[in-house]
Amino acid sequence: MYRKILKADGFSVVETLLDDLIMLVALLSFAQLLGFSIIVNKNQGKDATKATAFAHDKMEELNNLAFTDTTTNLTVNPPYPATGSGLTAGGSISPNAAVANYVDYLDQNGVRMVATGSAFTRQWRITNETATLKRFDVSVNSNRSFSFGSVPATFVVTYKSN
Q: Mean pLDDT over residues 103-117, rounded?
């Protein structure tokens, strides 16, 4: 009978506890990764949605101007003064090349503010396609720093005819 006990197959209590510990560490790591990914997706999704809405707001502002307007300042809140460039061809959508009169800065709620501390940078470019057709390109980039993934950004294009 003593021989049978020595040859018995199976796992010891120590082996089982060690396996349980390894499984616990793996599951906790997975749970932490899952929670982190949920937070990052929520924040980036929220900023991406806001960027799209802010881009469409700028498109509406541009489309509401007269085709020949060359003086309206769209970088400030309404009522718009006649100190800007209106629908004059120009501007840039490159995040590193902001052009005066073709860029504004927004807080988290879409309210215009100064560049320092802004949550979003909104830039636009106006191109004269023909004598009776203008192209508007609007780019909105989040200024928040995300450690992982790309910064939320939106780019929209529309045309306006005379």
A: 93
